[in-house]
Model the fold of this input.
Amino acid sequence: MAKSKKAIKDTISCPVIRGQVLGVSVYRGYEKLSTLAEISKADIYDQQSNPLGTQRDLSPKHAKEAYEYVKNSELGFWPEIFLCARSKDILTYSHLSQEISDVGILKIDIGKIKKSKSISISRVDGNHRLHFGDGIEPNYTKIEKPVSFCIAYNLERDEEIQLFKDINKNQKPMNTSHLDGIDVRLTPEQELKRRTPDLYIAQQLNKDTNSVLHGKVYEGGKKPVGVDIPLRGLRTGIQYMLSRSSQLPRLADAEAQSKVIKNYFAAVKQWQPLAWKTPKDYILLRGAGLWAICFLGAQVIDRALLNNTFDVKSLLTILNSGKNWDWSNKGSFTGMSGRSGALAISEKVSRHLKDANQLSTEQLFQQIMSSK
Done:
């Protein structure tokens, strides 16, 4: 079918096919990239200013590469742009005939879109392809080449974000913390505690205002200043802690585990306060250092729970019982990285920890080796 588009005041009309994709009601058609860019917006998730957003933060480099590709390619191809109409009154569909009711004309009311204070048409997939296409940014002219689009309608916000996750979860560039953040938002709390306690505990450490990690965990989307601990990294560390501990799994509810682990991190902050004050100068809250702290936490928490304690003071006493290590970037653990490095760091530190009136593992080892 030949494409016919005409402007009627602030309305565009284009031929579409109406149908369903795996239960999602959609219109599919073709339109200029610039027009699709003008009528849609990206709903960027920001854990502080836009917690209901759906999109990850834009990569300017990725967007520029997409623009250059379509601008300079005589022959090229893109998968269709996937949009979602959030406002019901901006679309009007009329079929061409009674016999073929799913082929027709879709009218999009640009006037209402421009007047709306909220996002009328969101970008589910294709934000980087659309970003520079409208020609608003300096040095970027409009892209008036036609591309295919698919626009969903009658979707709830949670359904839209679920589709965003389904589309992106297997793509390498997708930020894993963003996916974890979506899991948290879509999963009821009780189910999250039961199904993925590591993720529940990680997000609780960020959410709880009494936690020393409150507001420090990056959950995806636009990255706020000072939020440097990836949710996925912390979740993995908690997973390591739970798998290495003999006592934490005995606590039947992830909420109880979360309270103990929150106290442990409070003790770690008192133990290594400079790592909180200038985190970029220390490895303790990132990479192998963070995982090492989590590995170490399994042993420290086990010692405390076996003595029927779990308060910050008791946990700090155990941490202070060992050797004074340098956790700075060029300190005691230089060159140790990844899971194996984290495990090596934790074992190195834990060998010198001791309970009251007891020898440390290292002291016991030396005594055994010197015996006849």
The first strand starts at residue 6 and ends at 8. Residues 43 and 53 are 5 Å apart (CA to CA).
